[in-house]
Amino acid sequence: MSFTTQDLIAQARSRIVEWDAPTAARELAARKGIVLLDVREPAEFGEGCIGSACNVPRGVLEFKVDPTYPACEKTLLDRQLEILVYCKTGGRSAFAAHTLKQLGYLNVTSLAGGIEAWKSAGFDVTPVRA
């Protein structure tokens, strides 16, 4: 049996928690400890991000959260962190959230619709300094 990309995204979404943009904004304002994880590519990230997001492209996520990997992202190693993952439209972040759950992260949420939904809902995007 083969699957389409949309099938795989739907499978991932069925196993994770997603917040719409207004819910995410409310939770970010109420709970200051949430780590924002942007899994877009660096060029996309350079166009702006949500808050003070950490950029780890989806393609290297598993390596960056592996403490044995020399170039790991040390700010993401605590499996107890509350993490809100986002991408451009929500597909990559669904995959990333599912992967993080499989790797033992307990508090991972994906932003439904990604940064595009965030902007469409009228929320600010932070310019990224080069």
Helix content: 25-40%
SSE string, helices as H and strands as E: HEHEHEHEHEH
The total of helices stands at 6
In quaternary terms, these chains amount to single chain
What class, by secondary structure content?
alpha/beta
Strand content: 5-15%
Mean pLDDT: 96
- Number of E strands: 5
Distance between the termini: 45 Å
Instruction: Let me know the largest β-sheet.
Output: 5 strands, parallel
Strand order of the largest sheet: 1-5-4-2-3
Global geometry: globular
**Gyration radius over CA:** 14 Å
* Residue runs with pLDDT of under 50 for 5 or more positions: none
Task: Describe the overall structure.
The chain has 130 residues and is an alpha/beta fold. The protein is 35% helix and 15% strand. It has six helices and five strands, in the order αβαβαβαβαβα. It has a five-stranded parallel beta sheet. Helix 3 links the parallel strand 2 and strand 3. Helix 1 crosses helix 5. The protein starts with a helix and ends in a 10-residue tail after the last helix. The relative contact order is 0.23. The model has no long low-confidence stretch (mean pLDDT 96).
Task: Name its key features.
single chain, 130 residues, 6 helices
SSE order and pairing:
Blueprint: H1 5-13, E1 17-19, H2 21-30, E2 35-38, H3 42-45, E3 54-55, H4 61-64, E4 82-86, H5 91-102, E5 107-111, H6 114-120
Parallel strand pairs: 1-5, 2-3, 2-4, 4-5
Helix pairs in contact: 1-5
